């Protein structure tokens, strides 16, 4: 192992004694040629590198407002909210003006610097050199970026490190991919279990047609009934904020917004409503972009006027209908009915949509069964998600230690 010495640069720390440091501007030159995306293939700069323009990318009619990218150039998004979006281009094309395009100078191994520029530590340093009014509009231009100091190993060492990280990180990525596939399969099993249970019940009984397309057949002792006979909307407007918890509807349910962990306090409480445990919370606006449209309220607090709070009528059990509408939300059935431009439903439209109504005791039985099963499944998913998180953190640390020479590439 080569002896280490302090680089004198805080974000880099110690490096091998035979390495040097230098500014990015000495290694790269700026390519700042404007071109048209009609003449040059439009590309996107992502955290997975440079790819053909994504369907989700914001597009403009100003076709000439693009920057030229040549094969082998390094492109990096200058905005802080796109941290980690960078890479070596395998394409000739054009990218958004918000990106900085760099052409390598002299002899180097660009793959080594690609690994270095993807580290969290470089991302923090890149951000530190930026300017802006607010965090999410913070940008780091070339005039500042070129002054950032980075480690400079020999070209042979750059090649060794890049090749080693290519191989080892590919192995880690395979494990990550396998774990993610396992999580996806377990999540799909949970969805299937919920669908089967809320539409067919827990007992082997004769089935009849429900008359509801996404339900199909249901037990003969159940009925199909419009939602307006199952629940009604309430809106308990909050006249003044008095320190209550702020609740949000998320993919993890109706949760208390953690203001200490970066959750934002509303700028205004106009229209905010008090909500009560045991009621349903639904999002009926912009259903096409809402990650989750249904939640079961478990805490007192305040929530956005964008949500609708429903109280169950006699004979309807909120936890059963939470699971039922969770099933509906998985396949976005409500979205198919929201035909207006805002992809939204009114209370009356929701009230007219039919839902199954099992006998009340069965609703309770189904909800209790799914509570227990989903708790077991979520524990397994949580364990695998923790493994994923651990692997991702290990990979980040692993890369940084090798690109800064704190660990030496094995000779075999």
UniProtKB/TrEMBL annotation:
Keywords: DNA-binding, Endonuclease, Hydrolase, Nuclease, Restriction system
Pfam families in the record: Methylase_S
Record flagged with keyword Nuclease: yes
Type I restriction modification DNA specificity domain mapped to chain residues: 16-175
Gene Ontology terms for molecular function: endonuclease activity
Keyword Protein biosynthesis in record: no
Family to which the UniProt record says this protein belongs: Belongs to the type-I restriction system S methylase family.
PANTHER family: TYPE I RESTRICTION ENZYME MJAVIII SPECIFICITY SUBUNIT, TYPE-1 RESTRICTION ENZYME ECOKI SPECIFICITY PROTEIN
Name recorded for this polypeptide: Restriction endonuclease subunit S
């Amino acid at each position: 192992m080569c002896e280490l010495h302090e680089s004198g640069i805080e974000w880099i720390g110690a490096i091998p004694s035979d390495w040097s440091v230098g500014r990015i501007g000495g290694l790269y030159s700026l390519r700042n040629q404007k071109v048209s995306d009609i003449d040059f293939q439009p590309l996107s700069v992502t955290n997975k590198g440079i790819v053909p323009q994504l369907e989700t990318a914001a597009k403009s009619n100003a076709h000439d407002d693009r920057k030229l990218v040549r094969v082998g150039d390094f492109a990096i998004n200058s905005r802080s909210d796109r941290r980690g979006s960078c890479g070596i281009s395998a394409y000739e094309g054009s990218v958004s003006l918000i990106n900085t395009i760099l052409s390598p100078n002299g002899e180097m191994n660009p793959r080594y610097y690609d690994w270095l520029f993807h580290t969290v530590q470089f991302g923090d340093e890149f951000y530190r050199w930026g300017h802006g009014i607010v965090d999410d509009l913070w940008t780091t231009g070339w005039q500042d970026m070129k002054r950032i100091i980075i480690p400079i190993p020999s070209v042979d060492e750059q090649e060794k490190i890049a090749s080693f990280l290519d191989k080892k990180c590919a192995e880690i990525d395979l494990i990550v991919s396998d774990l993610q596939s396992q999580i996806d399969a377990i999540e799909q099993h949970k969805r299937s279990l919920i669908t089967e249970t809320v539409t067919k019940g827990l007992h082997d009984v004769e089935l009849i047609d429900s008359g509801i397309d996404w339900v199909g057949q249901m037990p003969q002792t159940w009925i199909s009934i419009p939602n307006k006979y199952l629940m009604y909307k309430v809106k308990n407007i909050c006249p003044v904020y008095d320190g209550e918890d702020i609740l949000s509807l998320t993919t993890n349910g109706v949760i208390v917004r953690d203001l200490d962990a970066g959750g934002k306090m509303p700028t205004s409480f106009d229209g905010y409503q008090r909500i009560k445990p045991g009621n349903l919370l639904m999002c009926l606006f912009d259903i096409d972009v809402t990650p989750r449209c249904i939640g079961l309220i478990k805490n007192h607090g305040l929530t956005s006027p964008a949500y609708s709070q429903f109280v169950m009528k006699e004979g309807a059990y909120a936890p059963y209908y939470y699971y039922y509408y969770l099933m509906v939300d998985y396949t976005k059935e409500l979205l198919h009915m929201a035909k207006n431009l805002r992809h939204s439903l009114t209370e009356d439209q929701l009230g007219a949509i039919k839902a199954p109504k099992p006998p009340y005791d069965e609703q309770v039985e189904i909800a209790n069964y799914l509570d227990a099963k989903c708790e077991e499944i979520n524990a397994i998913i949580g364990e695998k998600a923790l493994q994923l998180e651990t692997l991702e953190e290990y990979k980040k640390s692993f890369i940084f230690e090798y690109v800064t020479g704190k660990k030496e590439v094995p000779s075999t």
